[in-house]
Amino acid sequence: MRRPAPALATAAAALLLGGCSLLGGGAPDPVPVGTAAPAAAEQAARADLAAFYGQRPEWVDCSGGFECARLTVPVDYAEPAGATTSLAVVRLRTSATGAERLGSIVLNPGGPGASGVEYARGAAAVLTADVREHFDVVGVDPRGVGGSDPLRCLDDAAVDELVAADPTPDDAAELRRLRALTAQLGRGCAASGELAAHVDSRTAVKDFDVLRAVLGDEKLTYLGKSYGTYLGALYAEQFPQRVGRFVLDGAIDPALSDEEVSAGQAAGFEVALRAYVEGCHAEDACPLPAGTDAAVARVRALLEDLDAQPLPTASGRALTQGLGYYAVAQPLYARSLWPRLTEALRAALAGDGTGMLALADAYAHRRPDGTYADNALQALPAVNCLDRAEARTAEDVAASVPEYERASPTFGAFLAWSALTCVDWPIPPVGEAAPVRAEGAAPVLVVGTTRDPATPYEWARGLAGQLESGHLLTHDGDGHTAYRMGSSCVDRAVDAYLLAGELPEPDARC
Fold first, then answer.
1. Which of 198, 216, 288, 414 has the most neighbouring CB atoms within 10 Å?
2. Residue 215 to residue 197: CA distance in whole angstroms
3. Cβ 314 vs Cβ 351: under 8 Å
4. Is 258 an active-site residue?
5. What pTM was estimated for this model as a whole?
6. pLDDT tens digits, residue range 453-473?
7. Is 226 known to be catalytic?
8. Active-site residue flag, 480
């Protein structure tokens, strides 16, 4: 399952998906109010939210043993009598009863923009059998995402154009073109309705608390990965007394600015690329030259060549530099994907971009027919640009490129220029970078992987250190996130916490 980087969206990449639908207009939808869920009455901190906390949605069978429902929440929690929006929720019930049933575990795979519903449907791979035996597994698509009244800002053709655009402008004309494309995305989102101004993470976690109450749980048990750790940290800050057993895997440090996040990711992907190269050299017939530095330089040269001369592919679409960056980044999320990158690079170095285009399409969730499976990459900038208020200009972005390139010769410029998206975003931000303490919250288990490309290990250390009740588990390994990614040591430690509340020893490593 794809776990998108929280900021790996260059102006060309963050900008996806199409159509325009007005959300939140007109009279508010009625909230179904019935007998409140067992814990709901005490959990609505404000009387004007009681109807949302007390709703009892209709659960219907939706294949594979799952139940599906719609959850109604306010578009703006400051105006709960106004417009509402609908969230898609899925649940896999445990057969356990009595003391053996430990409640619900809510999952979020990251993004912003990834589907919690689809992640939960992969529960057999996401959670161990022991955890599934004792918890109802619940996934929700955050507001504006996937099946939850999704934002739609561009049509598929405009998405294709944006993803394939030159992400590293070399002159004023290329910069104007890139800014025009990113501005088009922002205008499309702003025109899509009131919801576009309320898809920020601090609002999204308020929805999580409504979900907790509707599920009948006094406290929220939660597994968040990548950007899902940011949601978890913000929930713990807003609702510390409602924190149950929290696992935040592949952590984002909430204290970092957007620029610091992007620069950290650039460095993280450089480390991951070097680890991939060393793995490639250990296999037969690696297409890259001997020596880590020389091999990384060859990958970088390939990406630079694509800027001037895209490669042909079997589909007739050209492999551009923008698509090439996604093709290289996508397999760095999981070591199991490294062989696919090796084969794609072998073909590309021989003049055929078909394999790399397939990897780029996998990252973007683009189907062979040219449509996109979801709005994940469109929702990404819509959320990010609201979450952190930073007054940056295009000139500031251009000036930052050399520093990024020093930290990451391969990915630096690509991620530096991604900041253009928020420079031109038409909706004012509502959040800012700030440390999260979550005073009074139950213990929170933070998991960090030492060579994680998308969420560098230092971020996990930062989050665990900020949280008053944070505990860090270190995974010495490759790839993005650690739980259920091949380490039995990590799996045992996380399960012990989820099932019995047993935390790893201080400074524990797997």
1. 414
2. 27
3. no
4. no
5. 0.89
6. 999 999 999 999 999 999 999
7. yes
8. yes
